[in-house]
Amino acid sequence: MFERFAVEARNTVVRSVEVAGRRGDRRLGTEHLLLAALADDGIASALGVDAATAETAADAADREALAQIGVDVAAYGPLVHAVGTPRPRLTAGGKVVMKRTLEYAVVERSRRIELSHLVLALLERPAPDPAAALLSRLGVDATRARSALQRG
């Protein structure tokens, strides 16, 4: 399936692996795909949020979740990542997004899987999916974003 990805979509998936590694996550989830997709100006415009704002919101959500179980992130200093860690596997939600991405391309009779197909699949994730939670935290109007993406 990866060979059908348009360059922007392929680069986003590759970037999502980097995002997961940078965030210290062992699995590649929908939040990593979303954060990577927002590096594209067209996607950021359609969703009404930029990558830096989304990264900040994701970091804040992580800190809040850890604080709820009594972990003060500030007490630990910067996170150090192991070099040469294996490529993360997709979460169940990530697998569903990839499947839906392909389905969007098929419905449109597109020969390529475009970045917009990936983002449309992310926009339909239900709570408590991490991408859905991040989109909600950012105040993204999924209906408006979907419409902007489908207009091109």
UniProtKB/TrEMBL annotation:
One of its GO terms (molecular function) is peptidase activity. GO terms for biological process: proteolysis. It comes from Orlajensenia leifsoniae. This is Clp protease. Residues 2-152 form the Clp R domain. InterPro entries: Clp_N_dom_sf (IPR036628), Clp_R_N (IPR004176). Keywords: Hydrolase, Protease, Repeat.
